[in-house]
Amino acid sequence: MLTLDLTNAPRWHDLVPGVRVQLRPLTTALMVATRSDPAVEAVPEEASDEERAVAFAKALARRAVLAWDGIGDADGKPIEPSPESIDALLDVWPIFEAFQLTYVSKGLLLEQEKNVSASLPSGPSAGATDTAKPARKRAKTARRG
After folding, report:
1. How far apart are CA 56 and CA 31, in angstroms?
2. Minimal CA–CA distance to 11: which of 106, 95, 76, 96?
3. Cα–Cα distance between 79 and 143 in angstroms, integer?
4. For residue 137, is pLDDT > 70?
5. pLDDT tens column, 31-52
6. What are the tens digits of pLDDT across the range 88-119?
7. Considering the entire predicted model, what is its pTM?
8. Interatomic CA distance for residues 3 and 97, integer angstroms
């Protein structure tokens, strides 16, 4: 059963021991805005899936992070979230993984469940019918010159 939280209140997420972030709810508006983020759109077509995932996660985090605890500068002084510090935070592998698992994957899992449970109206399913007529004769191949 899908449970709707109509409050849309920000929530605290523990990423690693001693580090937590307050995040906006993962809404459709937030995901759509992130997909059209200039940093996401600037990822080259030939980029790997991993590079795309990092760019998307950072863009999403820049929109979602409202506050945090347990994060400081090189001198150990607490710092506030900023686009640069959020990007630096997600460059830490365990933080990136925790962000993906505790925040991003919840929205993606729901999408995946929706896709898996839907039956296909056409295609290779048992009830599908052919849409193309059989060829009457074999096609000729081009000559090599």
Report:
1. 10
2. 106
3. 70
4. no
5. 999 999 999 999 999 999 999 9
6. 999 999 999 999 999 988 766 554 444 444 44
7. 0.70
8. 25
